[in-house]
Amino acid sequence: MSKVLKPAKKVRQTTIDRLFKKKIECNTIQQSNKENVPSSKKVEQEQPTNNDTTFNNTQWLESLPSESQELLSVESQNISPEWLSLVYEELTKPYFTQLKQFLQQQQQAKKTVFPAPENIYSFTKYCPDPAKVKVLILGQDPYHNFNQAHGLAFSVLCNKLPPSLTNIYKGIKIDYPKFVVPKKNGNLSQWAQQGVLLLNTCLTVEAHKANSHNKKGWETFTSTLIRNLIDYKNNTLDQEIVVLAWGAFAINMMKKTINMDSVNKKNKKNNLVLTSVHPSPLSASRGFFEGHHFKKCNDWILEKYGEKEVIDWCSIKD
To answer: Where's it mainly located (predicted)?
Structure first.
């Protein structure tokens, strides 16, 4: 019987404070690396914000009990510091401990789970700085066949394009007629590198069992990540983003769980939310192609931030 791990105790604030180091002090701290704890004279104790601080993954992990260190090794090794600073408090909550224990049980039962552990959070690698996010495309759960899921919603590694992605390409072709639709390339990492956050609400799935990891805790984690991202963009950077919510699940997440109307009112911003039916062949003909989301998204970005910031949706090529 596997050892049942208890949820990590809340980390003391004095320990958490040490996880953040002001960039202006980085050289000083690195030169005095022999000291285990930076002097309070060198680092002011201020509320951390992403734009002027660096989150230290290693120190955060070492501040946790040994059981939690083992349980959260994937997160500490694969979530970029900038993203981890937005969600680290979630990782020690009971629901996330239970989620990680569930994934351990899946592994012990020899279940095949997608994507591979090192790719679960790859959206933070392709777009490592939340400050660069301009667009959020919200998916549901990863593709559940081999050589498909790699941590980016709607994106695949294999040469065979899923039907939903084929329809997404068709939508781009309608908005940008010169787009040469790829026949084999379904890897959307070039979008991510431009600031498109391709995020599934559920980050893992059992092979050949769609939605098998729903309601295990991922939805709580990703909804918090989205809220924190939008608050950071709105309140710290004074910027807004575009959200593309396709299908009832994504629309419900943005309108009810996250409640974008309330977020916009609270932050006194006008983040743009574009909704449509899902690009799946079962629903795409009922309005997805008429939504013109890719052009509307870029028109909004162009007006707000200029031509250099628009997304090159046509960058995916065979």
So the answer is: mitochondrion
Phi first, then psi, for residue 22 (nearest 5°) are -65, 135
Q: How far apart are CA 39 and CA 81, in angstroms?
A: 22
Token pair recorded at residue 17 = 């404070």
Reported as a pLDDT band with limits 50, 70 and 90, residue 7 is very low
Nearest partner of 274 among 241, 303, 240, 245, judged by Cα: 245
pLDDT digits (tens, 9 = 90+) for 223-247: 999 999 999 999 999 999 999 999 9
196-200 and 272-276 strand pairing? unpaired
Please identify which of the residues 129, 141, 175, 231 carries the catalytic annotation.
141
Distance (Å, rounded) from C-alpha 318 to C-alpha 165? 14
Radius of gyration (Cα) for the chain, nearest Å?
20
* Active site (annotated) includes residue 52: no
Q: How far apart are CA 186 and CA 162, in angstroms?
A: 8
Residue 220, pLDDT > 80, answer yes
